[in-house]
Design a protein that fits this description.
The complex is a heterodimer of chains A (368) and B (526). Chain A has 368 residues and is mostly helical. Chain A contains 14 helices and two strands, in the order βαααααααααααααβα. Chain A has a domain of 219 residues. A two-stranded antiparallel ribbon of chain A has the order 1-2. In chain A, helix 1 crosses helix 2 and helix 5 packs antiparallel against helix 10. The longest helix of chain A is centred in the last third of the chain and has 28 residues. Chain A starts with a strand and ends with a helix. Chain B is α/β, with parallel strands linked by helices. Chain B has three domains: 244 residues, Rossmann fold; 192 residues, P-loop containing nucleotide triphosphate hydrolases (Rossmann fold); 74 residues, no CATH class. The radius of gyration of chain B is 24 Å and the shape is globular. Classes of the chains: A mainly alpha (368), B alpha/beta (526). At the A-B interface, helix 8, helix 9 and helix 14 of A face strand 1, strand 2, strand 4, helix 11 and helix 12 of B.
């Protein structure tokens, strides 16, 4: 028989191994699932994990999808480290897209060199403004940020829907709910010819580096980490909780907003009703897979991006349902949470108690 | 005469409980190694040892909470493998824990009904509670809500809960830390009465006076092993301490000196609690001067937590003369701003408040020491941080790997030395210390007390809140008592007695001194 026993101190090795175990668990479960469905698991895995990496164009696609995941994941990880549970990066991304896209539409077909920087700034500010709502409500009324950020996701999507059905609808768009296409100066330039990957990935990697410096080397990062690990110690040291909440939500609003504008000004090229297949939510898994560490988040975002592409490729190649992507994401998170248990606990075999014959007349007899 | 009969019972009968070769290993420590012990019916048996000596683990094994790796338990001459507390209760073993497990929003009888293994009609149970509590001199009202009761009264609920099951063996884990000296005497009467009826008692403590006053026999533990057995009445505090710590007790001395200017002053501090079961601070006035230690006695739960939070700034109040630090009104300043004025602070919870458990000692230096050159333009300077941590480790003899060890890897005593050291080396003008030696071994406790006295001699003003009366009598220039959120006047230790402080601890500040003296302090009985 085995029992779980708390480790003397959390295992560092296990913290790093756990995502790898989770990925292995996901693949093994997938193997059985596809066999049961009568599909050749080897072929599914080829379509899922190899094909999306088999050409320069495909790798470009991988990096393209990595961009929003990485941006949102970085912002979320910063908040999660400080115990601030923003789960509405999807909404902040949508608002960033709306604000940045609005600027792009205002410029129209102008080829002003101001257009792109202003769009990026507007995207960032849009995301921040959306994240400011839960920050204000939490610091002023102690409102739960999980609920507020989540509800704001749906509001932002309805705002976008209202705009593309109404004021911003393309008059020549045959009534499709979408805006005009952005002009050339309002579209991000491609990083490598022959792919669709934009400068967004460079911003994202740069921000990962900055985020690493902030979290590891600055007093601000330290304060937020203390707030997450031991809130009472943060209060004892006099670190302001409100300040941490504002920083965490503003940072995530900014990165998610940037992700939103990078999407609409990049591969999409216009505002439309559907701009994200749930990047903001998938980024929650990305942050955890990456152990809330900026460098880890890069790997988490790459893996999650691969799951998106692999899911599409499996849908097209084998006619598997689109739910397959969600299934794999869910499996990954499920196994990760299970494996994480072993960071603080370990399995111990229970041996039967050794029986030692009592020596009668214990020392007390003498004493009495 | 009564005592004689009592001893006869002890001498005559077969042991009720015999432990042999009990061993329990944890990943980082061997908690119990080859422990043997025997208790007879009607015997009050002390289990004496420092914090971390393995007393609690051993009791948890007897009560079926923890499973031993090796060893046997012989109960009334029969081998038993006790795997759950309810099995232990069926055998007739009861345990009163150091930390109570009562629901504050329920009444006494409801709490007791929850813990009973069989169903009893409420009216009948209430009658039983009244009867048992009267019989053993622990009167409680079964219909009272637990949150309205003092800590001492809650302990009665726990004891009565055990007694209702007519235990043959009662385990008491450090029962007196929550009691006033007078209440301790009442508890001892109850325990003696129980023993005279044939109930065995295992009495866990590190307080030598108590053990000598109460117990028939003692098993002393050190480092998880039995380091000796004794008849406490025939021993002195010194000889018991030698068995317990394996060496001589060092002594602290307080050389009288004249205090200088006022560093901290409270004038009529009144602060309603934010926790529905907390204590409201009522009209507290005090002052602490440079070069003196003001000790605040009292049982925890009488406003200690609230007073600490109000002084440190973790709980803010209005600005004004209510709290003056270095002549500044600081009521509305947060802890960081109060630290800038020269305040440092050692909280009673070490892990999670005074230190961040998974972080290294170096980063834990940064927690409060940022202004000591560890941060420049927002960037952390690791060299300065590590250097500071190293010097704390060295000066305060902290036993640890190095400054990169996680705070959670240190023992309670060593972590407390580190925190006291850190707050000391921040060169405070005013230092507030909560429960300086809670859960700390004797050696470390001595070092910490000496460090506090040294600070006082350097002209720092200190306010020490502690439950250990003996400690406060040693290190305080003046003593006051916090009871039910009110603060007594302060007195010099030489001008008061344990009896008077004990009366004050129950909230009776106006009792004349001679009435208080009628209670014989424990140390004099022993």
């Amino acid at each position: 028989m085995f029992v779980l026993e708390r480790r003397a101190s959390p295992s560092r090795a296990m913290a790093i191994t756990s995502p790898i175990l989770a990925a292995a668990g996901m693949i093994i479960t997938g193997f059985f699932l596809f066999t049961a469905l009568g599909k050749d698991p080897v072929e599914v895995f080829y379509l899922f994990f190899i094909k999306p990496l088999s050409s320069a164009y495909d790798i470009g696609e991988l990096l393209l999808k990595t961009t929003p995941l990485l941006l949102c994941g970085l912002g979320l990880a910063m908040g999660f480290r400080a115990n601030i549970w923003n789960i509405g990066a999807e909404g902040q991304l949508t608002m960033g897209a709306i604000a940045g896209g609005g600027v792009a539409l205002w410029f129209g077909d102008s080829d002003s060199s101001w257009a792109m920087p202003l769009m990026l700034i507007a995207g960032i500010l849009g995301g921040m403004a959306w994240a400011a709502i839960p920050a204000y409500l939490r610091t002023r009324f102690n409102t739960n940020e999980i609920l507020v950020t989540l509800m704001l996701v749906y509001i932002s999507q309805l705002v976008l829907s209202w705009l593309v059905h109404g004021a911003w609808r393309d008059p020549e768009g045959q009534n499709y709910p979408q805006s005009r296409g952005f002009g050339d100066a309002e579209t991000m330039s491609v990083l490598v010819d022959g792919t669709r990957v934009t400068w967004g990935i460079v911003y994202a990697l740069g921000l990962a580096l900055i985020s690493w410096v902030v979290s590891q080397k600055t007093i601000t990062g330290f304060r937020m980490q203390v707030a997450g690990l031991a809130p009472a110690a943060a209060a004892y040291a006099g670190f302001s909780e409100k300040r941490n909440i504002w920083i965490a939500l503003m940072v995530c609003g900014a990165t998610a907003g940037l992700a939103g504008i990078c999407e609409v000004a990049g591969p999409i090229g216009r505002l439309q009703q559907q701009i994200s297949p749930g990047y903001g939510f998938a980024a929650i898994i990305v942050a955890w897979i990456g152990r809330l560490h900026p460098i880890g988040v890069i790997f988490g975002a790459l893996l999650m991006s691969l799951l998106y592409l692999g899911g599409e490729s499996a849908q097209m190649g084998m006619g598997l349902p689109s739910a397959i992507t969600g299934l794999f994401q869910g499996l990954l998170l499920f196994y990760l949470l299970a494996a994480d248990l072993f960071i603080t606990f370990r399995l111990k075999r229970v041996r039967p108690v050794e029986r030692i014959e009592p020596t009668p007349a214990v020392r007390l007899e003498k004493a009495a | 005469m009564k005592n004689m009969e009592h001893l006869e019972i002890v001498a005559d009968t077969k042991p009720r409980l015999v432990l042999t070769g009990i061993t329990k290993r944890y990943p980082s420590v061997v908690a119990n190694e080859d422990i043997s012990l025997s208790v007879k019916p009607g015997e009050i048996h002390a289990v004496l040892g420092e914090n971390g000596a393995g007393k609690s683990t051993l009791m948890k094994i007897i009560y079926g909470i923890t499973k031993p790796d090796a060893g046997t338990i012989l109960w009334n001459g029969q081998y038993e493998t006790i795997t759950t507390p309810s099995q232990a209760r069926r055998l007739g073993i009861g345990m009163v824990f150091q930390h109570f497990s009562l629901f504050e929003t329920l009444t006494v009888w409801e709490n007791i009904a929850l813990a009973l293994d069989e169903r009893v009609a409420p009216a009948k149970l209430a009658a039983q509670i009244t009867e048992v509590s009267q019989k053993y001199g622990l009167p409680i009202d079964p219909y009272r809500l637990v949150h309205s009761m003092s800590v001492g009264e809650r302990q009665r609920v726990e004891i009565v809960r055990c007694l209702l099951q007519e235990p043959k063996l009662l385990i008491m884990d450090e029962p007196t830390s929550v009691l006033t000296p007078q209440a301790v005497l009442v508890l001892f009467e109850t325990l003696r009465r129980l023993a005279s009826e044939g109930c065995s008692i295992l009495y866990i403590s590190h307080k030598l006076d108590e053990i000598r006053a109460l117990c028939d026999s003692a098993t002393v533990l050190r480092g998880g092993r039995v380091s000796g057995t004794a008849i406490p009445k025939n021993e002195t505090n010194e000889s018991l301490a030698r068995m317990m710590i394996g060496g001589e007790l060092a002594v602290c001395t307080l050389v009288p000196r004249e205090p200088k200017e006022v560093r901290l002053e409270l004038q009529g501090l009144t602060l309603p609690t934010s926790d529905p079961f907390g204590t409201t601070l009522k009209d507290i006035s005090l002052s602490v001067r440079s070069g003196e230690i003001l000790g605040i006695a009292g049982v925890s739960g009488n406003g200690q937590k609230e007073l600490m939070a109000a002084l440190s700034g973790e709980r803010l109040c209005a600005s004004g003369p209510m709290i003056m630090l270095m002549d500044h009104p600081v009521g509305d300043l947060n802890p960081a701003k109060r630290r800038e004025l020269g305040l440092t602070f050692v909280p009673e919870e070490r892990l999670g408040r005074g230190a961040v458990p998974p972080m290294s000692l170096a980063f834990n230096a940064l927690l409060t020491g940022a202004r000591k050159g560890m941060v420049h333009k927002g960037m952390i300077y690791p060299t300065a941080m590590r250097g500071f941590a190293k010097s704390v480790i060295q000066r305060f003899k902290v036993k640890c790997g190095d400054e990169q060890s996680a705070a959670s890897s240190l023992s309670g005593g060593n972590l407390q030395k580190y925190i006291v050291g850190r707050e000391t080396m921040l060169e405070p003008k005013m230092m507030i210390v909560g429960q300086p030696t809670w859960g700390v071994d004797v050696g470390a406790a001595q070092l910490i007390r000496q460090a506090l006295i040294d600070l006082r001699d350097q002209g720092v003003a200190l306010l020490v809140i502690s439950e250990e009366l003996d400690e406060l009598f040693i290190i305080s220039d003046r003593l006051a008592v916090l009871a039910e959120g009110r603060l007594s006047p302060s007195v010099r230790p030489a001008d008061t007695s344990i009896g008077q402080i004990g009366t004050w601890m129950s909230g009776k500040f106006n009792e004349p001194a001679h009435a208080a003296d009628a209670v014989t302090p424990l140390r004099e009985i022993a």
